Amino acid sequence: MNLAKAQEGKKYIIKGIETDDEDLNAFLFSLGCYSGEPITVVSRRRGSCVVSVKDGRYSIDTQLAEAILV
After folding, report:
1. Most exposed of 1, 25, 46, 53 (fewest Cβ within 10 Å)?
2. Looking at residue 20, what DSSP letter applies?
3. Which pairs with CB-CB distance under 8 Å and at least 24 residues apart come from 52-56?
4. pLDDT-derived band at 11, boundaries 50, 70, 90
């Protein structure tokens, strides 16, 4: 399942990143999105969602959320 389909408020473990775009992969890694890290969908807005990873909260769009497998 990808993060776009995840339930709000529930903690998930990232299983992997599914993308062929190296820049996108590097960006997600810089946010702390990599295998084994816990991630939580805090809220959803039009076309994006707010996630909590490590010590930060980030607003990511649907394309990014679909690339994160949980």
Report:
1. 46
2. S
3. 56/31, 56/32
4. very high
Structural domains in the chain plus CATH codes: 3-69 (2.30.30.90)
Return the pLDDT at 28. Answer: 87
pLDDT digit string (tens) for 19-69?
888 998 888 888 888 899 999 999 998 888 999 998 899 999 988 899 999
Backbone φ, ψ for residue 33 (5° rounding): -90, 95
Transcribe 23-67 into DSSP letters: HHHHHHHHHT--TT-EEEEEEEETTEEEEEETTEEEEEEHHHHHH
4's tokens: 């776009």
Q: Is the pLDDT of residue 1 over 90?
A: yes
Distance CA(21)–CA(47), nearest Å, equals: 20
